[in-house]
Amino acid sequence: MIERDTVEGSPLLDPSTLSDGDIHGDPPGRLKVGGAAFELREDSLWISDSNYVEESKGFSCFGLRPNNRKNNNTQIILYHYILWSEIIQNTLTITYAERTTKTRLTPKTLTYTVTSTSNNSYLESWITNLLHRSNHTAKKRKRIKVLINPFGGQGKAAKYYARDIEPIFRAAKCDISVETTQRKSHAGVIAEEIDIERWDVIACCSGDGLPYEVFNGLARKPDAKVALGKIAVVQLPCGTGNAMSLNLNGTDNPAFAALAVVKGLRTSLDLVSITQGDTRTLSFLSQSVGIVAESDLGTENLRWMGNARFTYGFLVRLLGKTVWPCDIAVGVEIDDKTAIRDEYRKYHGQTTGGDSKIISSSSSELDTPNETLTTSISAGAGLPPLRYGTINDPLPPSWTLTPYPNLGNFYCGNMAYMTADTNFFPAALPSDGCLDLVTIPGDIPLKRSLTLLDSVGKGRIFEQPDVRYRKVSGYRIVPREAEGYVSIDGERVPFEGFQAEVHRGLGTTLSRSGRGYEASGPVLPG
Ligand SMILES: Nc1ncnc2c1ncn2[C@@H]1O[C@H](COP(=O)(O)OP(=O)(O)OP(=O)(O)O)[C@@H](O)[C@H]1O
After folding, report:
1. 247 CB within 6 A, ligand 1
2. What is the CATH number that goes with domain 7-135?
3. Given a cut of 70, is residue 57 above it in pLDDT?
4. Architecture of the 143-263 domain
5. How far is the CA of 431 from the centre of ligand 1 (A)?
6. Distance in Å, CA 384 to ligand 1 centroid
């Protein structure tokens, strides 16, 4: 029997009359089914059920919270944790992810018998309303091509998928197809051949290596631009480096990342063309030359140390070789930390006073295609043309190749977090058409270098006087020495000159917010 609740003297609003704009409005949708009363509150579903006895829970403030304000027959489930709801054979089911341990989510299903079908349309509307509130504008029942790197991280990706990820996807009624990568670069081949109409998402159960291959696989399609704009590439953190998930899902825990993907909003992502020799590849995360590249790629033999190998590699180099002389030309968009911070705040609506310059000034290749790009779209194939040419072309007229004889660290980021503890590019935004470029001299006194290292872990790198922080739309870097490391998204490429150019919003991913990274923004003293 479905009843319209008239508690507190107010007749129930019929949810079928709610439009999207009413989703967070009053009054909430209420109903009674199978002896339980349901109420759609602003951020959560409240269920009063005399059959429900609150369990003692160690992690009570997450998926399922005991309600101390009423009585212990009331369950409160945050919308973020609700995975699905439907009527099956006269039974209302509500499935949600319950936090069963500190790191685990387990799907649970509540069932309530519907004893009469007389008000079924009301119940259907209520379910629609519940799912609207639980998913906002996120696509429900996403169609997900899952790729598993069997050697990612410590070889546990398949285990994490089976235990932590797949149950969440299935409970949310996602359409899933799983493929295990058979060899290096296989993920790129799968992406290159994928039917972009069949899938919404390619989800990489891996480190950052598979998403890199997938973006580049999509880039090799004849309709690369369309493919990159259509398929959302996401990472489910099962590798050593899980920066993509940290920035977009806000976690490096596979179960919570799976939930974030289920709830994820489509988000445009800048991708960066890297030309080196005769190759053109896409980077989505970072490029580095100098101490960061060396600390990562030059310590592969120390993998047994875990993440400590980066710090170890960094400190060893600080005490030894600290400069990597290069010539660098930069297409600068903003060259001032205060302006960068202010633009970031404007973008996130933290200040008043006009639109963010970062977003509105540079012409988006997707929003306002130029003539050349339009030609490429009408040709229907490939990546956008390069505005700044390749490493083999003359420099763009506005760029100047400048010697950096004492360069210690050249680090360019498209996302904020590089590791769980390292918000290295706090001003990074997913589709501002810019990379965040950090350059640090290598000849500063050791004490100041150690202060810098300390500031990285504290999230204070942006404000350090020795750190030059710029928003750039492209650059060229040419090492002067014969040997060293260049890292593109954590992958080693030849130690020779390369050029980078940002394509605003060329790629697509999913994120919790739909517009920013899960990181605190740039901070300056005062
Ligand atoms: N079956 C396979 N055999 C060998 N290599 C594979 C296989 N599947 C994927 N790879 C490769 O594993 C590499 C690392 O992938 P990934 O980033 O997922 O893991 P990771 O643990 O974070 O690794 P790393 O720390 O080495 O970057 C990629 O270059 C990918 O091509």
Report:
1. no
2. 2.30.29
3. no
4. 3-Layer(aba) Sandwich (3.40)
5. 27
6. 28
User: Which atom of ligand 1 is found nearest the CA of 209?
Assistant: 17
Residue 491 CA, closest ligand 1 atom number: 27
pLDDT, the chain, mean: 85
Q: Measured in angstroms, how far is the CA atom of residue 185 from the centroid of ligand 1?
A: 8
CA of 494 to the centre of ligand 1 (A): 19
pLDDT at 381: 53
User: Measuring CA to CA, how many Å separate 28 from each of 6, 49, 134, 170, 504?
Assistant: 12, 18, 14, 29, 40
Residue whose CA lies nearest to ligand 1 atom number 28:
209
Mean pLDDT of 101-109: 95
Q: Is the CB of 419 under 6 A from ligand 1?
A: no
Report the 10 Å Cβ neighbour count for 341: 21
Looking at domain 273-503, which of 2.60.200.40, 3.30.450.20, 3.30.2350.10, 2.160.10.10 is its CATH number? 2.60.200.40
How is the chain split into domains, by residue range? 7-135, 143-263, 273-503
pLDDT in tens, 500-523: 999 999 999 999 999 899 998 998
Considering only residues 64 and 289, tell me which one the structure prediction assigns the higher pLDDT: 289
**Mean pLDDT along residues 284-307:** 81
Closest residue by Cα to residue 148 from 181, 174, 114, 104:
181
pLDDT at 371: 28
DSSP-derived secondary structure for 23-52: TT-SSPPEEEETTEEEEE-SSEEEEEETT-
Pick from 160, 184, 303 the residue to mutate for probing ligand 1's pocket: most ligand atoms within 8 Å of its CB: 184
Is 184 a pocket residue for ligand 1 (Cβ < 6 Å)? yes
Q: Is the pLDDT of residue 355 over 70?
A: no
Q: Which residues of 344-370 are buried (b: 16+ CB within 10 A; e: fewer)?
A: bbbbeeeeeeeebbbbeebebbbeebe
| Centroid of ligand 1 to alpha carbon of 496 (angstroms) | 24
Give 417's contacts (C-beta < 8 A, 6+ positions apart): 243, 246, 247, 423, 424, 517, 518, 519
Closest-lying ligand 1 atom to the alpha carbon of residue 157: 18
- Tell whether the model's pLDDT for residue 315 goes beyond 80: no
For this complex, say whether ipTM is above 0.95: yes
Nearest atom, ligand 1, residue 204 CA: 18
Name the pTM for this structure: 0.88
Which pLDDT tens digit goes with each residue over 15-31? Answer: 444 443 333 333 348 88
235 lines ligand 1 (CB under 6 A): no
